[in-house]
Amino acid sequence: MIVNSILETIGRTPLLHLPLRDGEVDLYLKLEIFNPTGSMKDRMALSMVNSLPLTPNEATADIVESSSGNTASALAMISAVRRLVFTALMDSHASLDKILTVRAFGGDVRVVGKSDGALATDERDEEAKRIATEEGAHWTEQHNNPANATGYEGLAAELLDDLGPTITHFVSAIGTGGSLCGTAHQLRPHIPGLQVIGVEPVGSVIFGGQGGCYRQSGTGTPEGANVGLVIDYDVIDLGRKVSDDKAFSMCHYMARHHGLLVGGSTGGAIYEALSVAREAPVGSRIVTLACDSGTKYLDTIFNQEWLLLHKINLLDVEAQFADLFAARIGSPN
Ligand SMILES: Cc1ncc(COP(=O)(O)O)c(C=O)c1O
């Protein structure tokens, strides 16, 4: 495939088929890790930039966003191509890799909040608002921007192209809600009986419950932060919570048994998708997004010292889900 811009490589990601329960149930992972910056956020970032009121003759414009990393990386990449000046507001705990990625694309990173590792979602948003007001930048405001959710129209169309209306469950991580709700909105008219299941970390409060610390990156909303307008509870049938232990254990399992490096939010979503698969009727087809690549977490999720430091216990998910994957044993694939 010859392309004339890196932006043309956003989307059209492959679907990895994993037969479960001896073929009774199918799990499909939409490999969003194949987008140019390694996450699904390239889709929504392009949609948000395209929706900006930029005048045709504007040579450059300033845009600002508060992001834990993936949205910032995507906006920085698009800004490089579109000659935009991009500023990312990140937490003090943002991974060095993500900060360096934004800088590599020519973006500016400003670290906001205390250095104690706590999420500083509100402070980031306040600073974004200030930069937009005082410096005249366009704040893409991902939590409240309809172009976030509509950025996944292409993803839904790809799923319908590949699987038609046979999808029974859509299980995915939820942060701003753009990917889960945006995709579900597009799928629902074609699949009225679709079960939409959002997965957040234990300690995140999108589906209520007790707030607390969690280390799955990009997903969830911490206690005290506003749940944005992009989350449409009406399109979600069920909210599930997954612990860091389970999510990260699944990341290790996927890497070692399926050769697939995914981030923590994807590990959590796959964990929940497998739990759904165990109970699902014969013939169910479950779709889960592989939100971002595990290469972004080699120094955290895949680093034994980091796991020890943060008291993460890796669980034997292989044994736990052995019955689902049983038919794989001895399979040439
Ligand atoms: C790795 C990762 N997983 C999940 C999410 C949540 O996606 P959404 O904001 O579309 O709900 C994000 C968002 O930043 C993310 O970066």
* Each distinct ligand: pyridoxal-5'-phosphate
Which class do the helix and strand fractions yield?
Answer: alpha/beta
Which bin fits the share of residues in helices?
Answer: 25-40%
Apparent shape: globular
Number of strands: 10
Mean pLDDT over the residues? 93
Uncertain stretches: none
Q: Strands across the major sheet, in which order?
A: 1-2-10-7-8-9
Look at the structure and give the CATH class of the largest domain: Alpha Beta
Number of DSSP helical runs: 12
CATH architecture heading of the largest domain: 3-Layer(aba) Sandwich
Number of domains: 2
Question: How does this model look, in words?
Answer:
The chain has 333 residues and is an alpha/beta fold. It has 2 domains: 214 residues, Rossmann fold (3-Layer(aba) Sandwich); 87 residues, Rossmann fold (3-Layer(aba) Sandwich), CATH 3.40.50. Helix content is 35%, strand content 17%. The strands form 2 sheets. It has a 6-stranded mixed sheet with strand order 1-2-10-7-8-9, sandwiched between helices. Helix 2 packs parallel to helix 3 and helix 8 crosses helix 9. Bound molecules: pyridoxal-5'-phosphate. Pyridoxal-5'-phosphate binds next to helix 2 and helix 7.
Q: Would you spell out the secondary-structure blueprint of this structure?
A:
Blueprint: E1 15-20, E2 25-31, H1 41-50, E3 62-66, H2 70-82, E4 85-91, H3 96-104, E5 108-112, H4 121-135, E6 138-139, H5 146-150, H6 153-163, E7 169-173, H7 178-187, E8 195-201, E9 238-242, H8 244-258, H9 264-279, E10 285-290, H10 304-309, H11 317-320, H12 322-325
Parallel strand pairs: 2-10, 3-4, 3-6, 4-5, 7-8, 7-10, 8-9
Antiparallel strand pairs: 1-2
Helix pairs in contact: 1-2, 2-3, 6-7, 8-9
The structure holds pyridoxal-5'-phosphate.
Residues 39, 41, 68, 70-71, 173-180, 217-219, 263, 265, 291-292 line the site of pyridoxal-5'-phosphate (PLP).
